[in-house]
Structure formats: structure tokens, C-alpha cells
Amino acid sequence: MTIMSKKYNFPYLKTPKFKGMGADWRKRPLVPIMIRHKGITVSYLALVDLGADFNVFHSDIASLLGIDLKMLKNQIPFGGIKKGNAQCKGYVASVELGIEKDFFDNTLVIFSDDISHNGYGILGQFGFFNYFKIIFDRSKYLLRLEKK
Q: Are strands 75-78 and 88-99 parallel, antiparallel or unpaired?
């Protein structure tokens, strides 16, 4: 099923503060998504990240979807998550991503052990932003997604 012209509104979600930060809570543009592969669907919370090039999910999600990363040969390096110039690595797979009950097909995702297993997935420019007009309204702590 393909998403039809539709608008989605998501209030920013509260997350625990980080050490050294002033406020008790920090609001972030997190979106509940569904990831589907060969009939298996997993719900996951992901950060809509303007600075991310790709969608990046923890490799545990691939296991839940029945994707054997050891069988994939398309390993890719990426950065921006680890300290300094340290490179991360992950495996690229094609999945369906869904918002609410609507899915869009053939979305490339990097599955990696190099992101926190108890954190959030990352939704990036290629594989998410290219499907939507995205409006970050920080003054209202609201994220709006409009299908292109």
C-alpha cells in the first residue's frame, strides 16, 4: 500500500535530559514508525534528523524482521554518531516504512550495531525526507509531515 496525499502531525516527545543540560526534559521530533519486511512488522520510535543522510536503525531491528545481516554484502561506512572522526559501519537493506497504517515501499535503511540499542532510530534525507515535505515548528513543538 502506498501513502496517498496526507498530512501527519506529531507533537515533539519528551525525552530524559542529558548530563549537563539545564532542563529536566528535552522535547524532540520523534515519530512512531513501522518497519515491514516479508510480512513481519516492527514498531519503532525514530528521530527525524535533518542532519542525517540515511535512515539508520539498530541491527536488533533487522533480527526482529528476519533479516540476516551476515548474509548481506553491502556494508557501508557512515559517520556523525561516534566521537571524533570514528567511522560507523552498517548493512543496507530494503524495507517498507510505515506511518500510522500507511506504508511506502523499497526504502533503504542502514542497520548497525554502532547506534544505541536502547535509543531511537534515525530518519534521514535519503529514504525518508524524499517522501515528505517536512515542517519543524519548534515554537509549537510540532512536526508536520506532508506526503509529496
A: antiparallel
Which one-letter DSSP state was computed for residue 71? Answer: G
Give the pLDDT score at 116: 82
Q: Average of pLDDT values for 44-68?
A: 94
- Report pLDDT digits (tens) over 16-53: 766 665 555 688 999 999 999 999 999 999 999 999 99
The values of phi and psi at residue 131, to 5°, are: -95, -15
**Residue 35 near residue 103, CB atoms below 8 Å:** no
* Nine-digit cell string for 90: 552498517
Long-range residue pairs from 1-4, CB within 8 A, at least 24 positions apart, any chain:
1/102, 1/103, 2/102, 2/103, 2/104, 2/105, 3/99, 3/102, 3/103, 3/104, 3/131, 3/147, 4/102, 4/147
The three-point CA angle 29-35-40 to 5° equals 155
Residue 121's alpha-carbon distances to 81, 109, 130, in angstroms, are 12, 10, 17
For residues 122 and 75, give the distance between their C-alpha atoms in angstroms, rounded to a whole number.
18
Residue type, 15: T
Q: How far apart are CA 76 and CA 87, in angstroms?
A: 10
pTM of the model: 0.86
